[in-house]
Amino acid sequence: MLPERLQRLVDLFASAPKELRIQALLDYSRRVPALPDSIDPGDLEQVHECQTPFFLHTELDADGGVRIYFESPPESPTVRGYAGILHEGLDGESPEAILAVPDDFYLGIGLEDVVTPQRLNGMGAIVRRMKRQVTELTAG
After folding, report:
1. SS3 sequence of the chain
2. Of the chain's two ends, which shows fewer C-beta atoms within 10 Å, N or C?
3. How far apart are CA 6 and CA 57, in angstroms?
4. What is the pTM of this model?
5. Residue 29's closest CA among 70, 90, 57?
6. How many of the other CB atoms lie within 10 Å of CB of 27?
7. pLDDT of residue 140
């Protein structure tokens, strides 16, 4: 089961025609927030499985929610759009909610119709890396 915000995004994308999914993905690429000054770029972990240089960092906030940070070039709108979806759907969720997200949840969005299989593999790797970081945060 997906967290409510992420499920709404999945439903929205799944119900949209292919052309609108592409436009929505581009829109979400512009929604990825810039890294706050409190995050040292050296704290970001590269997801090497991505075709594009892609970095992420997670941390727990004071309420125990997971804060998610991404860095990816603006000229890579598909992976940035996916990062925007993850940020909007998961930022601030509990570690348990994030760990319960299936690695391939993006298949319910219909992204396989708009991005290459290699990019889809990178998307799965992003979720796996994020979940690994969350596991490490909560184990310590």
Report:
1. CCCHHHHHHHHHHHHCCHHHHHHHHHHHHCCCCCCCCCCCHHHCEECCCCCCCCEEEEEECCCCCEEEEEECCCCCHHHHHHHHHHHHHHCCCCHHHHHCCCCCHHHHCCHHHCCCHHHHHHHHHHHHHHHHHHHHHHHC
2. C
3. 19
4. 0.93
5. 70
6. 13
7. 66
The pLDDT, as a whole number, for residue 107 is: 87
Residue carrying structure tokens 């759907």 = 89
Q: What domains can you pick out in the chain, each with its CATH number?
A: 4-139 (3.90.1010.10)
- Looking at residues 114-137, what average pLDDT do you find? 91
With the CA atoms of 26, 84, 113 and 19 taken in that order, what torsion angle do they form, in degrees rounded to the nearest 10? Answer: -30
Q: Which one-letter amino acid corresponds to residue 114?
A: V
Residue pair 6/105 in contact by the 8 Å Cβ criterion? yes
Return d(Cα 7, Cα 58) in angstroms, integer: 21
Amino acid at 88: E
